[in-house]
Design brief:
Distance between the termini: 49 Å
Structural class: mainly alpha
Radius of gyration: 26 Å
Strand content: under 5%
Largest sheet: 2 strands, antiparallel
Strand order of the largest sheet: 1-2
Helix content: over 70%
Length: 771
């Protein structure tokens, strides 16, 4: 077995040190972004709007555009940014409203965790024989109940903070990106990317630091009972993902209701440009980018990260690491994440400092380079970490037996996940970027109307599932062969080890999208809009890559959690031929469809109200089309807010209540079938929905940009093929930004919830079969 090269004290220094380095780096990036002032000549009023308050000692903006040396443009940008971020109905006020409702649910669910887990041993306070080693005494179930509830609350709060910080940074950076676009596309790219990096590094550091501190505090009580300690830590992943679900669904409904309403009336019926200030839904649309794509995605990736770490820790705690109390080897998943932060830091410098972007064509390659560099560096990092932080040979718990594993095999598991993530990312890019033939074919199909566009788009989405599924399948087989369920959990963590870079690339998209909207609303020249559109088109593809990563890692995470659940519930084998399991499989495979139906319908009904409201304003407000009257933005924002708060509850309840109902009424075996079924069907639907929506969006942008001869034959804006492309894009909106991304939370959340309640289900579940 042997000791690790890295002593325990080294681990205790390394993990918090890397977290603090990430926070410092994020603050440095934020400081650089804040140097772009939203105040011409240090005017106090604009300073108040920008929220920076540091006026007077920054350089004035160097104007390189003719006729734009105008203070009113800067003031307008500051005003619009303020409306999106803070205004009467901006992103902040929406998130506070959402968190108020979600907070009530959080407290209720925390009480449920305490009651259910405490009742496993009748709320007894005496120590019990350990499940995996009856010769030793472990802490009572009541302790697990209390500490699981605390870690659930901590995970939920960290998830909410992650989403909120991301939203704050994005709304701080959007107008600054617009202003920098006047100097050139390279300057605007760097501001948007730095802002994304602030979010990425803060989130990675938060997740790691809070989990590390929690483990150390819980250790004070649990002492040598590491199985009990890491069982109670699983609540952290449950808290993170349950908040992410409401954030993703609520934010997704908000943003897409506004987007669909703005596009259908503005572009198709009224022939006005995207983000035109005359469109009443335009502010709601830009607010939506921040609450859905930024806050929702931040919470989602945090949830994946927390769960994959928890799954690995649970399996490790009942393996030789936990039995022999090897602290460094036990915290190997956290050490991998710490090294990931350092790798991402070096990778970020390639985008911001080592290479300069001079042309629009260089944007997408620069973002792809981030993925490749981080993957290569992380592969080297994982090899080193595995050598110093793991014994040369050890045993891993494998469904009742202990499997002998070498440290290089675990390193390979992490690397397999890492490279599978890159493959999924590149396949996603191929199917959603307008630089390649699949999206160009979809754009070409618009010549004969919206129907052929929809048919081509759906076919593309289904086809795009093939290679990612093979990549996930190979990853699962290889990692399970090497290190059982621990290997799969580490492969998932490998995919998420470069989370800081992934999030920076992902958050860059909505920031660029907002920047384009602000340029249009502030009345800036079409040359500026062309630059922000180029940034946005690259951002669309990278957002699709980010979703690919999230879905791929969700598949691995939920399988690892499934393995941990089966071990915890005391199931020796999951027999598909058993009727109890098979009925679970069927029902589980149906759940993603039921969930998607709810979220799609919610977006549809909210968009219906939005379209009617936008039409009403165009028809009844005199001078609106001429630009002499102002639209009523507040009513449109209210429609989105009300719809998302009301409609996020049923899908959330479906996901949260299903494991409880199935576990209590039908027992642990049927629940294992439900988890397997939802994983298998959910991954396929999520990938196809995300890629179909991304392809339709970029097919529309391909026609609008008119960059090639082929694209020019389909355009210009307002032509029949362009209108068909807009219809495809609006159909794809709820697919790629509401249903698709929420599905990966569904499969993870049901698995982690089942794991948390496994002991309760094993003791008191299966009531119907006991009658």
């Amino acid at each position: 077995m042997g000791d690790t090269l890295l002593p325990a004290i080294g681990t205790e220094i390394l993990i918090p040190a890397c977290s603090l380095v990430a926070i410092a780096f994020a603050l440095l990036q934020w400081l650089i972004v804040s140097r772009v002032k939203l105040s011409p000549g240090g005017l106090d009023s604009a300073g108040a709007n920008s929220g920076s308050g540091k006026n007077g000692y920054a350089e004035y903006l160097i104007e390189e555009e003719d006729g734009l040396n105008d203070h009113s443009v800067v003031l307008k940008c500051a005003d619009i940014q303020n409306a999106i971020a803070e205004g009467f109905s901006g992103a902040t006020s929406f998130l506070f409203t959402e968190y108020r409702y979600v907070g009530i649910f959080m407290v209720a669910f925390a009480a449920l965790i305490f009651l259910f887990l405490g009742s496993v041993e009748g709320f007894g306070t005496s120590s019990q024989p350990c499940k995996y080693d009856p010769t030793k005494l472990c802490k009572p179930a009541l302790a697990t109940a209390i500490f699981s509830t605390i870690s659930f609350m901590l995970g939920a709060v960290t998830s909410v903070v992650s989403g909120f910080l991301g939203m704050k940074i994005a709304t701080y950076a959007n107008a600054r990106t617009t202003l920098e676009a006047r100097k050139g596309v390279g300057k605007a790219f760097i501001i948007a990317f730095r802002s994304g990096a602030v979010m990425g590094f803060l989130l990675a550091a938060n997740g790691l630091l809070v989990l590390y501190i929690t483990i150390n505090l819980f250790k004070l009580y649990y002492g040598d009972d590491w199985g009990g300690l890491f069982e109670s830590i699983t609540g952290y992943g449950l808290g993170g993902s349950s908040m992410a679900l409401f954030g993703r669904v609520g934010g997704g409904i908000y943003t897409k209701a506004a987007d669909v309403g703005a596009d259908l009336v503005g572009k198709v019926e009224r022939n006005i440009p995207e983000d035109d200030p005359r469109n009443p839904a335009v502010i709601a649309d830009n607010v939506g980018d921040n609450v859905g794509d930024i806050a929702g995605m931040g919470s989602d990736l945090f949830g994946s990260y927390a769960e994959s770490t928890c799954a690995a820790l649970v399996v490790a705690s009942i393996s030789s690491f936990g039995i022999n109390h090897e602290f460094t080897a036990m915290l190997y998943p956290l050490i991998v994440s710490s090294v990931g932060i350092l790798v991402c830091l070096i990778t970020t410098l390639f985008a911001t400092d080592f290479f300069e972007i001079k042309d629009v064509k260089e944007i997408e390659p620069a973002l792809k380079r981030q993925l490749i560099i981080s993957t290569i560096l992380m592969t080297v990092g994982v090899a080193i970490v595995s050598w110093i932080a793991l014994p040369s040979s050890f045993t891993i718990f494998n469904f009742g037996t202990q499997k002998v594993v070498k440290n290089w095999q675990v390193a390979l598991c992490v690397a397999v996940g890492l490279w599978a993530g890159l493959i999924i990312g590149f396949v996603t890019e191929y199917y959603t970027s307008n630089a390649y033939s699949p999206v160009q074919d979809v754009a070409d199909s618009c010549r004969t109307g919206a129907a052929t566009n929809v048919i081509f788009g759906l076919a593309l989405g289904y086809k795009s599932v093939i290679i990612p599924i093979f990549a996930i399948a190979v990853g699962i087989y290889v990692s399970f062969s090497f290190a059982a369920m621990y290997g799969i959990a580490m492969a998932a963590l490998g995919m998420l080890s470069t989370i800081a870079t992934g999030l920076a690339i992902d958050a860059y998209g909505p920031i660029s999208d907002n920047a384009g909207g602000i340029a249009e609303m502030a009345g800036m020249s079409h040359r500026i809009r062309e630059r922000t559109d180029a940034l946005d088109a690259a951002g669309n593809t990278t957002a699709a890559i980010g979703k690919g990563f999230a879905i791929g890692s969700a598949a691995l995470v939920s399988l690892a959690l499934f393995g941990a659940y089966v071990s915890r519930a005391g199931i020796s084998t999951v027999d598909v031929l058993s009727p109890k399991v098979f009925i679970g499989l069927l029902v589980g495979a149906m759940l993603p469809y039921w969930f998607s139906a709810m979220t799609m319908k919610s977006v549809g009904s909210a968009a219906l109200k939005m379209v009617e409201e936008v039409r009403r304003q165009f028809n009844t407000i005199p001078g609106l089309m001429e630009g002499t009257a102002k639209p009523d933005y507040a009513t449109c924002v209210k429609i989105s807010t009300d719809a998302s708060i009301k409609e996020m509850i049923p899908p959330g309840a479906l996901v949260m209540l299903t494991p409880l109902i199935v576990g209590i009424l039908f027992g642990v075996e049927t629940l294992s079938g439900v988890l397997a079924g939802s994983l298998v069907s959910g991954v396929q639907i999520a990938i196809s929905a995300s890629n179909t929506g991304g392809a339709w969006d970029n097919a529309k942008k391909y026609i609008e940009a008119g960059a090639s001869e082929h694209a020019r034959t389909l355009g210009p804006k307002g032509s029949d093929p362009h209108k068909a492309a807009v219809i495809g894009d609006t159909i794809g909106d709820p697919l790629k930004d509401t249903s698709g991304p929420s599905l990966n939370i569904l499969i993870k959340l049901m698995a982690v919830e089942s794991l948390v309640f496994a002991r309760f289900f094993a003791t008191h579940g299966g009531l119907l079969f006991k009658i």
